[in-house]
Amino acid sequence: MAMLEVKNLGISFGGLRAVNGFHITIEKNQLYGLIGPNGAGKTTVFNLLTGVYKPDAGSILLDGKDITGEKDIEISKAGIARTFQNIRLFSQMSVLDNVKVGMHNHHEYSVLAGIFHTPKYKKEEALMDEKAMELLKVFDLADMAETNASNLPYGKQRRLEIARALATDPKLLLLDEPAAGMNPKETGELMDMIRFVRDHFDMTILLIEHDMKLVSGICEKLTMLNFGEVLAEGATSEVLNNPQVITAYLGE
Ligand SMILES: Nc1ncnc2c1ncn2[C@@H]1O[C@H](COP(=O)(O)OP(=O)(O)OP(=O)(O)O)[C@@H](O)[C@H]1O
């Protein structure tokens, strides 16, 4: 069974059909890229997959479960996590707390337990601290656990965002332009990290990216969007050599 199976997905904003007939099948453990010119609808696809927008057509199956039209919190619980094009960390919170925010989605103790710090609450908090520190170690951020997120250099903030997304224990990780604003050295490190996340966490990853070095370096399959519709899909080299893709996007 595919990890993500999307069929005929669509949404309009006013008179604009931003995404139309979108489809994608991503197998477990795959590293998959979504490419296309500015305004093609890539982020809108992410917003549809994560419940920010409700599709007006189509279906989304995550690991066999129909999540079409579910709210974002339900979709997060079902197992889709994402990062954003513009970094969205809690800048005045510590690195550790940023990761723990991701975990809180999945822990259900009552508000009163939180206020009165009951033994159950304390136990859960201690467990979360431990898990969050383990994640930070993997991302080489453990020595900065108490630092405010805003004080991290840019490349590390991007890494922290991915760590926070993984803290929700997802089945599918969506990365929206993870290399945006990075220099070539940082992009190279990011590529290694994305591969590592896939292997170490047994993760399935869909990423939006304009950096073709990153795309051709790590994605196994690609879907190319143009004016809200799939123009090409298949193995990365096949798509990147497709004359229509070159005309519509790469030859820009
Ligand atoms: N909430 C919204 N209301 C109205 N129009 C929207 C909304 N969200 C997206 N759009 C429009 O939908 C189209 C697709 O936008 P989207 O951000 O998905 O493109 P993109 O492929 O991610 O572009 P980029 O590579 O520049 O990030 C654009 O024309 C955009 O203006």
UniProtKB/TrEMBL annotation:
Family matches, as Pfam families: ABC_tran, BCA_ABC_TP_C
Gene3D superfamilies: P-loop containing nucleotide triphosphate hydrolases
Gene Ontology molecular function: ATP binding
Annotated ranges, domain ABC transporter: 4-252
Key words of the record: ATP-binding, Nucleotide-binding, Transport
InterPro entries named among the record's database cross-references: AAA+_ATPase, ABC_AA/LPS_Transport, ABC_transporter-like_ATP-bd, BCA_ABC_TP_C, P-loop_NTPase
Entry keyword annotation includes Methyltransferase: no
PANTHER family: AMINO ACID ABC TRANSPORTER ATP-BINDING PROTEIN, CONSERVED COMPONENT OF ABC TRANSPORTER FOR NATURAL AMINO ACIDS-RELATED
Protein known as: ABC transporter ATP-binding protein
Organism: Jingyaoa shaoxingensis
